[in-house]
């Protein structure tokens, strides 16, 4: 019996074929084509990595203030110290006194003179030749050195099978038309160039990924993605779904008559778009965007009501228990008077309650089902699900969004699906990741909603903030105080929810202060929130569990502690908890110094605008698409070589080319998808 060989570290990274290695392109480059004297490096190297060499004249290990190795090298012009805070015995031997070494790094002015900290080091002979091309630096995982990856890539580039794998099979006319202005190289030439760029290359274009070789690769990858999305779009239209048209009387009409407000013009427009989708005989796949408080929930309720009117079940899934519970309470309030059974399913239910909920869902007695991820567990089986609403869809991983789509479909029918998000999707993201998603936007707030004033305040003025809070509560208004952590962390040294709760309770003896955080049991959380809603608690100290779904119109002030620790979307969501009543609303972003440049820019943007689209674009530029999409949870980076903001103009070229390929060259489509996406195609359907 042969034992199976364990995978190598490279194979664990997915680098198990010449093609995979060829497409493992460098993340950056180092210039080892130029050698400078130590004197030149000291004069020119500040903030620039440079290369020099010399003989080791001293090598010592010090133990104070911490264990470190100091190595001194010299040439005919000067000497230079190398400092290593982490090192191995093998490195001590490599840099023994008398050895000639070549080093590359940035020079800084240290306590003992000019030094390089953790430079790249190689033992060489004094006349060792220099590299003739820039040195690629590859994405790597723990334990895999750059030397191992470079060697494997160079071998792969010589493999005869690569010529076939990277063959030009896209119609020459199409490539010529797309790249006419840009002079892109052929694909294999582009990839070889990116692994081994010559010394005289335009280094800036290479580093910024705007070089024609990068453009050819980016276009090919975007083309594969756009083909996949357009194909998913066409496939969905071939699937059968129940057609839901408006009924003159029933649950939908009853709901419209029962809700105590008129729909805004934007809500009516969006509901008409969704109603049109629901009347089709193929499944709806729509994203409903709207700022916090714009009234997305009532639209979701109407979509569920229409499905129920046709004898189908509807489900609403939310990422957190507190948000799901808010939906459940609201839906019970709206639907139960209309004779509809609303079921609740979450991970925290007792086993008996869970079994009961699962039984009435499977038996069809539950017409509207609200829950968390528990709705897509194996034991949940719907009797006849026709409408699925996924709230804050970016908080679910791609696999989870796929799962609800696939679980609810039968051989005959797929259910209609609607995602909701208060974090707008930037246009470039919508074009690349949501091509099979129709988007509706509620772009106005309900009447009476007042704009929120945002103030940015140093943590040193905390006492002033608390004094202002006292005056605020004395007017009969309520407030939130949001903290980023539950308990003390030695590393972050942040004020915590418990510490703030104790301090504010002492500082505000005439008012009731409540505390809610993620470690409270569900019923304890619900009790605190109910007391806050009833104004039995005037100040609610909370962690980010209140980020979504909490609606207390009398709470018009929010203080966010350590605001520099929060992201754009989180603060935008939190801030949306105020501004829901008739009082002027204020959000105070309290920050600790020193502030990083990114945090300063983030707080400044949030102070200047409450426009979710502006905030989303800034968020995209800061974090990239993976986190905004929830794609990181899938474990697969969707676009490896494209920056959606820098390369936005390429998206339209790829869209046009994808349409032409699908219309005129369907035989080439599969080959192109397999080359660029392989097993990741499924994720693009989510």
Give an overview of the whole structure:
Helix content is 40%, strand content 18%. The chain is α/β, with parallel strands linked by helices and 686 residues long. Strands 6-7-4-3-2-5-8 form a 7-stranded mixed sheet, with helices on one face. Strand 2 (50-62) and strand 3 form a beta hairpin. Helix 11 packs antiparallel against helix 13 (296-309). The longest helix has 27 residues, at 212-238. The protein is globular and about 90 Å long.
Quick structural gist:
The chain has 686 residues and is α/β, with parallel strands linked by helices. The protein is built from 27 helices and 22 strands.
In round numbers, the mean pLDDT is 84
Give a count of the beta strands, DSSP E runs of length 2 or more: 22
CATH level 4 superfamily of one domain: P-loop containing nucleotide triphosphate hydrolases
Q: Could you tell me the strand content as a percent range? A: 15-25%
Distance between the termini: 42 Å
CATH topology of one domain: Rossmann fold
Low-confidence stretches: 394-403, 406-411, 626-637
Q: What structural class should be given to the helix and strand makeup? A: alpha/beta
Name of the CATH first level of one domain: Alpha Beta
Main β-sheet, spatial strand arrangement: 6-7-4-3-2-5-8
In CATH, the architecture of one domain is 3-Layer(aba) Sandwich
The 3D shape can be described as globular
Helical run tally: 27
- Evaluate the radius of gyration: 30 Å
Largest sheet: 7 strands, mixed
Helix content: 40-55%
Characteristics:
27 helices, RecG/Mfd, hydrolase, Rossmann fold, 686 residues, alpha/beta, OB fold (Dihydrolipoamide Acetyltransferase, E2P), DNA-binding
């Amino acid at each position: 019996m042969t034992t199976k060989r364990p995978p190598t570290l490279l194979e664990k990274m997915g680098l198990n074929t010449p093609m995979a290695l060829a497409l493992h392109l460098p993340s950056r480059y180092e210039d080892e084509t130029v050698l400078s004297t130590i004197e030149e490096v000291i004069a020119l190297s500040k903030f620039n990595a440079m290369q020099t060499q010399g003989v080791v004249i001293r090598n010592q290990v010090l133990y104070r203030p911490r264990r470190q190795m100091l190595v001194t090298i010299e040439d005919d012009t000067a000497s230079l110290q190398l400092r290593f805070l982490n090192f191995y015995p093998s490195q001590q031997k490599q840099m023994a006194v008398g050895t000639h070494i070549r080093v590359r790094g940035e020079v800084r002015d240290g306590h003992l003179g000019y030094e390089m900290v953790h430079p790249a080091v190689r033992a060489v002979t004094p006349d060792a030749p220099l590299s003739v091309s820039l040195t690629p630096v590859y994405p790597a995982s723990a334990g895999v050195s750059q030397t191992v990856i470079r060697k494997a890539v160079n071998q792969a580039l010589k493999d005869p099978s690569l010529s076939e794998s990277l063959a030009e099979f896209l119609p020459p006319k199409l490539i010529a038309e797309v790249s006419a202005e840009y002079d892109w190289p052929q694909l294999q030439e582009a990839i070889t160039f990116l692994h081994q760029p010559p010394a005289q290359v335009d280094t800036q274009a290479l580093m910024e990924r705007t070089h024609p070789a990068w453009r050819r690769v980016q276009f090919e990858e975007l083309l594969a993605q756009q083909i996949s999305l357009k194909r998913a779009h066409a496939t969905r239209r071939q699937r059968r779904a129940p057609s839901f048209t408006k009924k003159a009387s029933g649950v939908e009409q009853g709901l419209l008559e029962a809700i105590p407000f008129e729909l805004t013009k934007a809500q009516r427009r969006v509901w008409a778009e969704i109603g049109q989708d629901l009347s089709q005989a193929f499944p709806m796949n729509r994203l409903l965007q709207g700022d916090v408080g714009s009234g997305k929930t009532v639209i979701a309720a109407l979509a569920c009501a229409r499905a129920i009117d046709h004898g189908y079940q509807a489900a609403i899934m939310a990422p957190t228990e507190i948000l799901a519970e808010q939906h459940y309470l609201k839906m019970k309030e709206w639907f139960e008077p209309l004779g509809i059974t609303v079921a609740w399913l979450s991970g925290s239910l007792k086993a008996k309650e869970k079994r009961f909920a699962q039984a009435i869902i499977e038996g069809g007695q539950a017409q509207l089902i609200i829950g968390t991820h528990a709705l897509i567990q194996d034991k949940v089986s719907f009797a006849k699900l026709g409408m699925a609403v996924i709230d804050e869809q970016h908080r679910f991983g791609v696999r989870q969004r796929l799962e609800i789509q696939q679980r609810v479909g039968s051989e005959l029918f797929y259910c209609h699906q609607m995602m909701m998000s208060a974090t707008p999707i930037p246009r470039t993201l919508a074009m690349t990741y949501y091509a099979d998603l129709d988007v509706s936007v509620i772009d106005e707030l309900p009447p009476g909603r007042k704009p929120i004033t945002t103030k940015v305040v140093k943590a040193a003025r905390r006492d002033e903030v608390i004094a202002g809070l006292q005056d605020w509560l004395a007017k009969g208004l309520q407030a939130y105080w949001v903290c980023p952590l539950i308990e003390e962390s030695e590393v972050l040294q942040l004020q915590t929810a418990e510490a703030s709760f104790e301090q504010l309770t002492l500082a505000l003896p005439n008012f009731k202060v409540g505390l809610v955080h993620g470690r409270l049991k569900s019923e304890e959380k619900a009790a605190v929130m109910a007391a806050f809603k009833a104004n039995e608690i005037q100040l609610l100290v909370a962690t980010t569990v209140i980020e979504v779904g909490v609606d207390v119109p009398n709470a018009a002030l929010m203080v966010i502690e350590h605001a520099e620790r929060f992201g754009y979307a989180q603060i935008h969501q939190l801030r949306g908890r105020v501004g829901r009543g008739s009082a002027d609303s204020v959000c105070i972003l309290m920050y600790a110094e020193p502030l990083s440049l990114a945090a300063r820019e983030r707080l400044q943007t949030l102070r200047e605008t409450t426009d979710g689209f502006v905030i989303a674009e800034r968020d995209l530029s800061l974090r990239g698409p993976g986190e905004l999409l929830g794609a990181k949870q899938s474990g697969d980076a969707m676009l490896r070589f494209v920056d959606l903001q820098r390369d936005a103009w390429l998206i339209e070229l790829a869209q046009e080319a994808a349409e032409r390929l699908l219309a005129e060259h369907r035989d080439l489509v599969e080959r192109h998808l397999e080359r660029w996406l392989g097993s990741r195609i499924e994720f693009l359907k989510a």
